[in-house]
Protein: IrrE N-terminal-like domain-containing protein
Organism: Kistimonas scapharcae
Amino acid sequence: MSVQIQAEEQRYSRQQIRDLATELLINVGVREQFPTPLEEIIHYLGYTIEEFEPDDDTDRVSGAVNHRQQIIYINHQDAPRRQMFTLAHEIGHVFLHREQEANHIDYRDGAMTPREQEANHFAAELLMPENHFRHTWMTWEGEPELVAATYGVSAEAVRVRADILKLT
Ligand SMILES: [Zn+2]
């Protein structure tokens, strides 16, 4: 039990995650390019993307990552904007958690553990960096669909981002 809790301890603050995501965007040379070119980032990290056709066993899986083989798996049936967030989330696991686990599977309705929260924060910072997001939000007067089009994400992802940044 104590081992389990330790393994799932939160390791990064929001500020640290923001700094790490910004650094990654700069290193890959894609800062201020939107929608964020996630494939370039994934290749920079030495990983490849494979889409999978969900079957009965995997239809609840949105994405996964195999660190040993350095492959990120993405559900082929999901809408492109949903896939964007999933890919960014998996990049979060690659960047933040690859020392802790050999594989990671993300279920649609999976528990929101500290690691999942960290990966979500990382994804949001990659796709919708805070300062840029604030500016875009003001430009479009907080219209989620219009803001979402800038970043290639779902309106729902924009609403969550705006909530966290206390813009709503
Ligand atoms: Zn995850």
The pocket of zinc ion is lined by residues 89, 93, 104, 106, 116, 119 (CB under 6 Å). The domain at 12-127 is CATH 1.10.10.2910 (Arc Repressor Mutant, subunit A).
